[in-house]
Amino acid sequence: MNRKRCFVLGLDGMPYSLMQTLFERGSFKNLKTIADRGSIKQINSVYPTVSSVAWTSFATGKQPGETNIFGFTEAMVETQTIYIPVDTHRKVGNIWEKLSSKGKRSIVINVPISYPVKAINGIMVSSFLAPVLEKATYPYDFYKKLRTFNYELDADANLAVKNRLQLMKQILDIMEARFKVCLDLLREESWDYFQLNIMETDRMFHFFWKEVQQEGDASFHDSIDLFFEKLDDYIKQIYEMLDEDTAFLVVSDHGFEGVKKEVFLNTWLENKGYLKFTNNQDKSFFTIAPDSICFSLAPGRIYLVSEHGREEKVRYIQEQLFKFNSEYGDKIIKDVVRKEDFFAGRYNSNAPDLLIIPDKGYDFKGEFGSQEVLKKRHFTGMHTFEDAVILGCRINIEKVETICDVSTLILKEMHYESI
């Protein structure tokens, strides 16, 4: 049986609607040509709509209740522990692990929830969750090669406040380094599955969304045009290096839209008396008072402080949140769902007790101590559940509806659907 190879380019946060706009503008000429040879469609992400959650669901084909990944941060109230979920918390196998078990070789670059790095049959370069590049690769000395390309794990998001011009330069430079490494590996290495994730689209959209829409600070418009021009050219170079037996996919993990306001839900909970602190001069997760009802982590995840009287507490907080819109005079919350009703799977007990589904433009944050419930900061773009994209050439994407469907398609295309 002739088994296909598969190349996946992950464009973090790339909306289907924006891709269509870039096609119309002529900014994605090469990608448009590829799309015309294959097919493209709009798909949905997962909830919570966070990159670490969505890419884990992409790689495993499972929802968060089965993967045990619910966000970029998790908290254990009983031990006052807050931590960043990493690959050791993931409970189900992913594409490259399954392929490795069959002797197939994978090259995976910059996929979230790939740290700590595990040995695979191939090459692994972890993501920004790795503390330093020296701990981000397998083989373990592969970082030395990355250094020759000036490869960096991530841009410095703090520059969004301090120096946007420098942040833009970092975004461009880091994206180019990733593609140069990718092209080098395509020339030099053998592989069956290759995945390159570009996080710089996400960084661009979070901090330059208005400029991407050709609004905002006009001094950045040329840099944004250059970013998409380079992205399009690198996609062309990759595609031209693939043979006719290699499936080619471009996938995003969620969509993006403009931010109307950020919502500091912990401040609202505090104002209502549902969240209290043992030290009002240091409001944080570590000073949550034991007689609090609940607290929130981004994006819109609500956890009870105590399980005692759980049903009554969950019902009450849900009812109060349904009054949020009328309190602030706008449609901010679309829905509030209970984990029992929303998260299916073996690990749904680790899911948030309640999850807020936001309405358009309202970005729910998990910080403590904000003076305001609604405010605007340096974030101009936010994730959306709708409007992710998949583009496929030499592979049939017709049945893909969500990010969770993609790994099954890939394994089927490679004739490994049974693993």
Describe what this molecule looks like in 3D:
This protein has helices spanning 16-25, 29-37, 51-60, 64-67, 95-101, 143-147, 159-162, 164-188, 200-212, 221-240, 265-271, 310-321, 324-328, 339-342, 406-413; strands spanning 5-11, 39-43, 74-76, 81-83, 106-109, 122-125, 137-138, 193-198, 246-251, 255-258, 261-264, 294-297, 301-304, 333-338, 354-358, 362-365, 374-375, 381-384, 388-393. The protein is α/β, with parallel strands linked by helices. It has an eight-stranded mixed β-sheet with strand order 2-19-9-1-8-5-6-7, with helices on both faces. Strands 12-13-15-14 form a four-stranded antiparallel β-sheet. It has a three-stranded mixed β-sheet with strand order 16-11-17. A hairpin with a 3-residue loop joins strand 12 and strand 13 (301-304).
